[in-house]
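Example 702.
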Amino acid sequence: MNTPSHRNRFLRVILDAPRLNYGSDLFDYRWPDDRAAEIGQRVLLPFGRQTLIGLIVEITDTSEVEPSKLRDAIAVLDDVPTLPLDWFTLMRFAADYYQRSLGEVALPALPLLLRKAKAYRPESVQPQEPARYSSRSIRQLRKKSMGAAKPDTSTASTQMPILTAEQAVAVTEIRSALRGSEFQPLLLHGVTGSGKTEVYLQALADVLARGQQALVLVPEINLTPQLLEIFRGRFPQARLASLHSGMPDGERALQWLRVHEGEADILLGTRMAVMVPLPRLGLVVVDEEHDPSFKQQEGLRYSARDLALVLAQQRRIPIILGSATPSLETWAQAERGRYKKLTLSSRAADDAAGLPQIRMVSLERTPLEHGFSETLRNAIQQRLERGEQSLIFHNRRGYAPVLACGACGWISDCRRCSVHAVFHKLDGRLHCHHCGWEARVPKACPDCGNVDLAPLGRGTQRIEETLASWFPEARILRIDRDSTRRKGSMQTALSAVHAGEVDILVGTQMVAKGHDFRHLTLVGVVDADSALFSHDFRAAERLFANLMQVAGRAGRAHKPGEVLIQTRYPQHPLFAALTAHDFDRFAKSQLDERRTAGLPPYAYHAVLRAEAKTLEAALAFLHAAREIAQNLLVACDQSSTIDLYDPVPMNLVRVANVERAQLLVEARSRPALQNLLPIWLAALRAIKTRVQWHVEVDPLEI
Ligand code: ADP
Ligand code: ZN
Ligand code: ZN
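Predicted structure in complex with adenosine-5'-diphosphate:
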């Protein structure tokens, strides 16, 4: 029997693979022209000896690839609606901006189940016809998705409070921005407890009434359940979806599908949620926009906050950036009038006692006992007597940052990194917080046999122990990464705090963010000094934001809150601004310094990082890279716009037996930097080297 003759077409696809040597990030495959295919569909492909899933971005009649090298695509997958053009536009932006191939950005943005080629099996249809490929897990998901979207109609919506005057102004501005159907960034600068959430809720109500979708980004997984609960209470009719990295793959795919298919009205999620296609998007909210967690620190090192801004710009919609301590990048934009500033300057709740009083406890002359000043200890005692809660903030988990031998000087270093391994008393082990290396605590010093190994410094476990010995009656709860490893344990712990079942809460960063603890009247910061004199120019900004955040947990209802910060430098200007709750003053002084020093946001950074077996190899690669960049700059007359620093070992030079170094590129013009990077990286890709390297644009830490 004659097979019907068909001509070939070519599918131009993207794959989760780096750019090819000659710069393209597209791959061509043959596909018969009588078989359906659409741009934005997923496609099953042979790649080397593997089978992969790619995305069709072009369909053409010609291919430049040598015919002998062209292969046939296996099957076009039609089990998920086509990915829309506007989603590709965002992916393309991210790829270009962060110097990756389109596929390296777009494919990892899809849920794992949608990129698992192995799950796809041919289904025999008619013997003559080409097989259709499908995946059982996706079929099951689709069945679930049809059942899942039902909104809860049983609960009545919770009461709306009467807005404060400042909230009302903010809401009016946002409403008018929503009507404008234009890109409009709004900075909601509201002190802790000022009711930013209520402003988001009113904006969301508007978006829902317009039949549009909203994207709400939060920095922490742990903030999603409580916010989801608030949304559910206020909008019982709305279809909610949420996404974060702690979700199992199936659940993630399900949530993603509901949003992509327009079956969800509000998507609440952590940074990854910015990558989800939202067909009816009307508003983006980035809560705690200053939070470093919005920056992905591995793979595609993107800033979800920055991409959210691009997304809003591309879709011509408003975006609300909310924070008590906006990032200096955002603040500078607001000061220049690019973002509209909306201010909430006082606490909103009817029973709120106003902003907490922040006091520095000088450690200049005060002797410390187990890390505590008498002032802080007494303050806790007082809270216990009054039946109020205290939060002791300390941003180091474990028992002690290091274990040392007083006899010979041995210290507990990680075997694989250039850092100390942290002593954890609860499991009796040393843990490296950077590579995961761990070992039993030695019974005696491995070098000299001395049996008196001493913990130096303190972590949250030790603080908990000290407090327990001082206040044996108190109910003490520690919240850090170690205490919340089990699924659901964080929520259980938070509920206990809310229910008043805890007297003293000891915690890291995890408890500093966002939580509305109503019974808490004291916040103690054990040590605020480690970040004061850091080489990192952003350390002060981060410290201020952290302290403001944690201070903001105190006194959110009825009784006034007090914040005690222990420091050896009580006169430091950062603390003066903090005590006065004066973010504006702090931001202005920081921005003045940055302007004078030519640092972001008045300059634009990229770092090239190299990793190798030896530091010499990593540095040698960076020196070669620097020379190439230097030549390119001379050739295009940009030497005065862009500075190339000397390659240096990274602060944490060795992690997991890999030596790391970096080269900082500092530009006075964003376009100049963006012009240099692709040609430079193309030249680097041509270098044959064993060194692993990557570039990070807008690094947060250098
Ligand atoms: P933020 O996110 O700005 O720190 P929240 O949104 O958590 O503050 O609000 C703090 C508290 O104030 C919450 O308990 C909230 O219910 C309450 N609240 C917000 N707006 C109002 C209002 N207009 N009237 C009364 N209470 C309010
Ligand atoms: Zn020793
Ligand atoms: Zn390590």
